[in-house]
Design goal:
five-stranded mixed sheet; disordered N terminus; alpha/beta; globular; D-Maltodextrin-Binding Protein, domain 2; 11 helices
């Protein structure tokens, strides 16, 4: 009898130790993330992309208890930093058009396919727009284009000579049948500054960047570049409505990871981002704070397919 009791006690102790070990292992391999997540943002602080990631961060904290460590690095340097970063599950890139054309245009020796996909986010609406000063003599897009056609050098457009702004202008010129005189004035914030200072006659920017200046009475938006009017700016016509057979796909946002990042981590991050982007409170914040509509979201496999389709769309306009 005593031996039986002793054996039972030994088994109980062994089971308790095994269970405790199991609990420890479960804690060690718990759900991602277990620490703050580094995100390189390839845009300046205060710009459109930066504003988006900071709102996303608020919801990421609510859902995971962890936060983004945001590192704003403009130009190609941000892409280079993440491309060479450790694939340790906590280094990511938040980028856009540049990484889809970087190999073709020679700006980098790699492109989006040399990373691991996390999430591709896009919109049914292209918010790229042509804006002028409120005091501009060009009351409509047709006024501006007529003047540019008559004397191209008399009308200067401010763009950035990389990425989607450059390709939109190239595609627009193809549709018009004549060239527009443009100059590189930098990122979204710098384009606004160039127009505000009268250094250019018009800029190609996005509505969320221009809207504060529209509201202050400094800018007017003449047209948007998408197939449809943007619901947040319903009074602004499309370029196609102005009589030019032209439209361009929306500029996406993409989360990428260094090659070799565990697939289950990319899947977990994708799931969290999807939950954030479909959260009604997030959608409301985007509308009220950034004048932006909801994003389309895709799983990892479909994000890869959508990214390839977007890259193929841009390829004809890469020089």
């Amino acid at each position: 009898m005593k031996r039986t009791i002793a054996l039972i006690l030994v088994l109980l102790v062994a089971f308790t130790a095994f269970a405790a070990c199991g609990k420890k292992d479960a804690a060690d391999t718990g759900a991602w993330p277990k620490q703050p997540v580094n995100v390189v943002v390839t845009a300046a602080a205060g710009g459109g992309m930066d504003n988006v990631i900071r709102i996303m961060n608020e919801y990421f904290v609510k859902k995971t208890g962890q936060s983004f460590v945001i590192d704003n690095i403009t130009g190609t340097a941000g892409y280079e930093k993440t491309h060479s970063a450790n694939a340790d599950s906590y280094n990511f890139l938040f980028g856009t058009t540049t990484i889809f054309t970087s190999k073709l245009d020679g700006s980098l020796s790699f492109d989006w396919a040399d990373f691991d996909m996390v999430s591709f986010l896009d919109s049914p609406y292209n918010t790229s727009c042509i804006a002028v000063q409120a005091s501009s003599p060009y009351q409509t897009l047709n006024d501006l284009l007529d003047a540019a056609k008559a004397d191209p050098n008399s009308v200067t457009g401010g763009i950035t000579l990389t990425g989607q702004p450059l390709m939109i202008v190239q595609a627009l010129q193809n549709a018009l049948g004549y060239e527009l005189y443009t100059t590189d004035v930098g990122n979204a914030g710098e384009r606004n500054a160039a127009l505000l200072g009268g250094h250019v006659d018009w800029i190609l920017n996005n509505t969320s960047s221009c809207d504060p200046y529209v509201q202050s009475g400094d800018f007017r938006i003449l047209a948007v570049c998408g197939e449809e009017r943007y619901p947040m700016n319903p009074d602004v016509p499309t370029i196609k409505e102005c009589g030019v057979d032209f439209s361009f796909p929306s500029q996406p946002l993409v989360f990428l990871a260094p090659k070799g990042t565990p697939a289950d981590v990319c899947e977990a991050f994708n799931k969290i981002l999807t939950e954030i982007c479909t959260d009604e409170a997030f959608i409301k914040d985007m509308k009220e704070k950034l004048n932006s509509t909801a994003y389309n979201t895709y799983n990892v496999a479909d994000s890869t397919a959508a990214a390839q389709k977007y890259a193929d769309t841009l390829a004809p306009y890469v020089k």
